[in-house]
Design a protein that fits this description.
Shape of chain A: globular
CATH topology of the largest domain in chain B: Glutaredoxin
Number of domains of chain B: 2
CATH architecture of the largest domain in chain B: 3-Layer(aba) Sandwich
Strand content of chain B: 5-15%
Distance between the termini of chain A: 46 Å
Distance between the termini of chain B: 29 Å
Radius of gyration of chain B: 17 Å
CATH class of the largest domain in chain B: Alpha Beta
Helix content of chain A: 40-55%
Low-confidence stretches of chain B: none
Oligomer: heterodimer
Strand order of the largest sheet of chain A: 6-5-9-7-8
Number of helices of chain B: 6
Number of strands of chain B: 4
Largest sheet of chain A: 5 strands, mixed
Shape of chain B: elongated
Structural class of chain B: alpha+beta
CATH superfamily of the largest domain in chain B: Glutaredoxin
Number of helices of chain A: 18
Mean pLDDT of chain B: 94
CATH topology of the largest domain in chain A: Rossmann fold
CATH superfamily of the largest domain in chain A: NADH-ubiquinone oxidoreductase 51kDa subunit
CATH architecture of the largest domain in chain A: 3-Layer(aba) Sandwich
Order of helices and strands of chain B: HHHEHHEEEH
Order of helices and strands of chain A: HHHHEHHEHEHEHHHEEHEEEHHHHHH
Number of domains of chain A: 3
Radius of gyration of chain A: 21 Å
Largest interface: A-B, 48 and 36 residues
Chain lengths: 397, 146
């Protein structure tokens, strides 16, 4: 399947510092159309029909989220753009924000119209502070088009967990970024307890074109349960690291071998630290919610890499970034690091392979948020595909 | 004299993270007096302010150097030999990750993914991104931070 530029349509085409170049390319036509020709219900219905799902990793249907917030009673509602891209190996949102901040602003205004919100927030990770002025400038330039919708940029202060939507809201409220118990879900009780939608940068980037071209146009692309395109961040052992947009359902091979020019691949981690690990034999797996996707981080490891070392480093990251609120994640990730460290030094045991498996299922079942639930993925996948790597590190072997 | 008096007037609790960051850049860390004053003006317990100040990696409750170096230790940079960059910084400054130079010029930290994996290995100094690092580039870059 070909590369297709929908999300990245304006990247490299417009001047991100000059709104006139955006308007010249059809900018704000979608917002005008929505306001003049569509009811809020029309908007959420169109998005539902498009099949657009969240691009931040969880894949929740965007239209259902928006509809939930639209139907929630109350005058005070919020639109949040999650620009806290912190998943290991992900940089697509940075790429997008650097090149086309205006589409995002337009999409947020459409979201505001659809759910009945007057206030939007862009939660920008502290590591992307260098984008703050560009974004603020884009918001300022767009003000004339936004009517009564305003956007405030809120910056994080360095915490991976704040990309998790409930922790993100706590952070905006001035608290430690810790995951919340759900229900209630943000669409009924989100920021300051008010109905709120939180969407990833890339998810929102799709909205204006869905409004202009219609749900049918969008849903023609992709697979049955994965519509449209996906923007991937490719890094690691490849000749051409970078950002690529492909129609959903495209094979992994196309991305890593044909576009990023990877050679001699041992395995590929898709979705970052909480993502899946596939051996080279699975290179024809389609990139789709039905198979593997996450937020689209694709890290390639060649034959020289050590599986256990990679998993150990992945788990070290998760243990460090666990917010500590729930026990399975806080303790589970720590214990996994300890065990993996022993395997890394060739001092594992058969019993500990079983311990890793038991711990994995407990964490998946009982962790409070996606971090703890998905933390064991790297272990589960490598135990399935590279079990001998563990067995060869059992003490005495 | 009031320390917090030099910070922006808060609208409310929602400004706590921003105010702590402001204190961080003004004083090089979040001093205890600032935490106490923020607790009072926002009418929240000081342990909550401490809880927030100690949660985020860009906030520090102990003094740090004038310039904070954060070398990315995550896998995409690791694959591009970030270890060599870490060792080079150690040699140039004579300190290990987690330490500050005796003259207070640099603090050296390791950080998790900073979203520059396509230009790995990468690091940040204060708010500046430095990419495609080589040992040769390091001393030149460090020189530009007085």
């Amino acid at each position: 399947m070909p590369q297709q530029r929908i999300v990245l349509k304006n990247c490299g085409v417009i001047d991100p510092r000059d709104i006139k170049t955006y308007v010249k390319k059809g900018g704000f036509k979608a917002l005008a159309k929505v306001r003049e020709e569509m009811t809020p219900e029309d908007v959420t219905n169109e998005i539902k029909a498009s099949g657009l799902r969240g691009r931040g990793g969880a894949g929740f249907p965007c239209g259902i989220k928006w509809e939930g917030a639209r139907k929630s009673p109350g005058d005070e509602k919020y639109v949040i753009c999650n620009a806290d891209e912190g998943e290991v190996g992900t940089f697509k949102d940075r790429y997008i924000l650097e090149r086309d901040p205006f589409t995002l602003v337009e999409a947020m205004a459409i979201a505001g119209y659809a759910i009945g919100a007057k206030q939007g927030y862009i939660y920008l990770r502290a590591e992307y502070h260098h984008l703050f002025d560009l974004l603020q400038d884009a918001v300022n330039q767009a003000r004339q088009y936004l009517n009564n919708f305003s956007i405030e940029i809120r910056e994080g202060a360095g915490a991976y967990i704040c990309g998790e939507e409930s922790a993100l809201m706590d952070s905006i409220e001035g608290k430690r970024g810790e995951a919340r118990y759900r229900p209630p879900f943000p669409t009924t009780a989100g920021l300051w307890g008010k109905p709120t939608i939180i969407n990833n940068v890339e998810t929102l980037m799709n909205i204006p074109q869905i409004m202009l071209n219609g749900a049918d146009w969008f849903s023609q692309m992709g697979t049955e349960r994965s519509k449209g395109t996906k923007v991937f961040s490719v890094s690691g052992d490849v000749e051409n690291p970078g950002v690529y947009e492909l129609v959903l359902g495209s094979p992994l091979r196309e991305l890593v071998e044909e576009l990023a020019l990877a050679k001699n691949i041992k395995m590929i981690q898709i979705g970052g630290a909480t993502g899946r690990i596939l051996p080279y034999e699975k290179i024809d797996t389609p990139l789709a919610f039905e198979a593997v996707l996450g937020a689209g981080a694709v890290t390639v490891y060649n034959a020289s890499r050590d599986v256990i070392d990679i998993v150990y480093r992945t788990m070290e990251f998760l243990a460090e970034e666990s917010c500590g609120k729930c026990t399975p994640c806080r303790q589970g990730t720590e214990v996994m690091v300890e065990i993996l460290e022993r395997f890394n030094q060739g001092e594992g045991s058969k019993k500990e392979i079983k311990d890793l498996e038991d711990l994995s299922s407990a964490m998946m079942l009982s962790s409070l948020c996606g971090l703890g639930q998905a933390a064991p993925n790297a272990i589960i996948d490598t135990l399935q595909h590279f079990r001998d790597a563990y067995e060869s590190r059992v003490a005495g072997n | 004299m009031s320390q917090q008096g030099t910070l922006t007037q808060p609208r409310g609790r929602e400004d706590l993270v921003g105010l702590l960051k402001e204190a961080q850049s003004k004083f090089g860390y979040v001093p205890e007096e600032v935490m106490a004053e923020l607790a009072e003006s926002l009418e929240i317990p000081i342990n909550e302010v401490y809880g927030v100040a100690s949660f985020y990696s860009f906030l520090s409750i102990k003094p740090v150097g004038r310039n904070v170096i954060r070398v990315c230790q995550s896998l995409p940079c690791y694959l591009k030999n970030s270890q060599l960059i870490i060792e080079t910084v150690e040699e140039e400054l004579g300190i290990k990750p987690g330490e500050t130079t005796p003259d207070g010029r640099f603090s050296f930290q390791l950080t998790n993914c900073i979203g520059l994996c396509d230009q790995a290995p990468a690091m940040m100094i204060n708010n500046d991104a430095h990419v495609d690092l080589t040992p040769e580039k390091i001393s030149q870059i460090l020189k530009s931070y007085p």
